[in-house]
Amino acid sequence: MDIIESDDALRKRLRQARHVAFVPTMGGLHAGHLALMGLARRHADCVVASIFVNRLQFGPNEDFDRYPRALESDCAALEREGVDVVFTPHEQVMYPTPQVYRVQPPPLADELEGASRPGFFHGVCTVVLKLFNIVQPQFAVFGKKDRQQLKIVRGMVQQFNLPVQIIPCETVRADDGLALSSRNRYLSPAERTEAPRLYKTLRTISDAIAAGRTDYANLEVEARAELARNGWKVDYIVVRHGLALRIPHPEGFDHPNLLIALGAATLGGTRLIDNVDVIPKDGED
Length: 285
Ligand code: PAF
Known about the structure:
The protein is an alpha/beta fold. The protein is 35% helix and 19% strand. Helix 6 (120-135) crosses helix 7 and helix 9 (197-210) packs antiparallel against helix 10 (216-229). The two termini are 31 Å apart. The mean pLDDT is 96.
């Protein structure tokens, strides 16, 4: 496995590849990331991962400085997974001058994650566009845990005619349902025991919709109350249309199988996000 820090060296190395599948990450790797690598391998002869903690997508009061950085163990895990190339640029490589040009994402970027984290999707889209331009992959794999990110990146690819196919990957969960996340390592043992409640609460909503309930607003209120009772600070718990991420028709005209429940909430000092399809379909977005 080659570990490459400069964009020039990366471009040179990738001239040998026929098809490149790319997995952008911010490191702090876990089994969820390794599933992305495995899916990438099914699409191309050359799998490239990047590890770059992107300052642009962190707000001033967020965890940029304490975001997990474990380059050595991350690279060891990627090597075991059979990744061909890891791109580990320093900030000087990605942002040699202040990044004054930015991608302007659509209004969806100001909702949900974007409402809690202003500027987040400007930062994500800008770095993903730069990484796509450097790596020039035919395929790029994104996890469905970050459902809004997946949707917005797909929209950017479509609207900017980027020659890359976005492949969604199912969320990997611990046995108790907690979605794997780099931030789970911030949880204390007691918080780790409580953490699966976010998934269970979203599951309760999706099961209720599958059973015929269409009073989405009530389901959202009940779920928020359940989390708050158990010590969570809730950012949002919502039912949305799974493809457009728009608010579903209040009369229940949307097909229930197309709906998803999404949530973000903070436990102790750790903000967790998750989403659950009403009827999970493996490999489908
Ligand atoms: O999902 C992430 O880890 C990040 O948002 C990404 C896509 C690597 C961009 O920094």
